[in-house]
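Weekly modeling sync, notes
Attendees: S.R. (lead), two postdocs, one rotation student

Agenda item 3: backlog of single-chain predictions. S.R. asked that every request posted to the team notebook include the full sequence so nobody has to chase files. The rotation student volunteered to paste the first one in as an example of the format we agreed on. Action items at the bottom.

Example entry:
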Amino acid sequence: MYLHRLRLNDFRNWARLDAELPPGTVVFHGPNGAGKTSLLEAICLTATGDSPRSHDSQEMIRLGEEVAFARADYHGADSRTRLEAAVARTGQKQLKVNGAPKRRADLIGLAPVVYFSADDIGVVKGEPAARRRLIDTELSAISRPYYSQLLRYRRSLEQRNSLLREIRAGRAQSITLSAWDRSLARYGAEITLRRREFIASLAPQSAAVHASLTGKDADFLVEYRPSIALPSEQTLFFGEEEGASLAGKMSIHLESRLREERQADIARGSTTSGPHRDDIEVLLRGEPARSFGSQGEQRTCAVALRLGLAAVIRQIAGESPVLLLDDVLSELDARYRAGVFAACEQAEQVIITCCDPADIPRSARQAASFEVRNGQLV
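Predicted structure, as returned to the notebook:
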């Protein structure tokens, strides 16, 4: 599946846009602030229901206007899908699929995209929350059950933390935590197992991309670091029956930990253990890349993670996601830039932004190219 046509009305600095895009590699080039990143943001908004740049809908609306609109038409081998998103200054958001109003959950799996931005270096060198968010976002984009479990876990966590503070203040009894412990353990067990299975697939794919970028094998590793270890080292890739059994064990294990830490949690007013405390460690030469990698090495690791994610999604979803690469070529030398394009060869469509079209490797200069200036295609 590939993005065939993109239409925008009053989206950031784009008053109007109606562009047809081919499959393969598409390059948008132009100076900073011209509107290149906004194009990728609009594509993400229609595909996922959210902006990767901002949670404030007003920022996406052109100055002086009341509503921003984006429409993306996708062509597949045997299908046509139209995705629309409109955001208003009132905070309202409307999503449509083929003209019919839909919820965000209804978009899952329709038009998978993988978005890389220069801010992705924060995933490698930043706090664990950034790495959890990366995995949760990509898993939620292809798995409706995971998305549903994640929402339920977050609601249960919010309720438990609120109750912990009530107990600390003497307005509730600790026995009332039991129901929320069970709920948190149930959904937390499923999240932990699905994350671990997903990262077990991601690790070799990202390592392969990293090797192609750097020419160094066995140098890059992604490891899942759950806050609560699995109760046994059973196979990561399990069938339905085995998965249910392991989920049950993990749920009991997590609930037991929550009971053990109850008094400490009451004193703290928050829940110590669970998937909301997990980390995904990125290792370079056996050491954490966040601490021991240079800026350039951290950026290369971030690229490898995103392109590895695209490969995993292709395996799970059965079709290649559209790759959206925003300013991926900056701070990379010519060999690394060529490696990025080589790693994208299996993608049906790659949409990439850059300031200077000369940054595009010679081998990829047959790509469709558009110049962007002041919210217009030149």
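Discussion: group reviewed the output briefly. Confidence is low (pLDDT under 50) at residues 233-239.
Action items: rotation student to repeat for the remaining queue; S.R. to check formatting next week.
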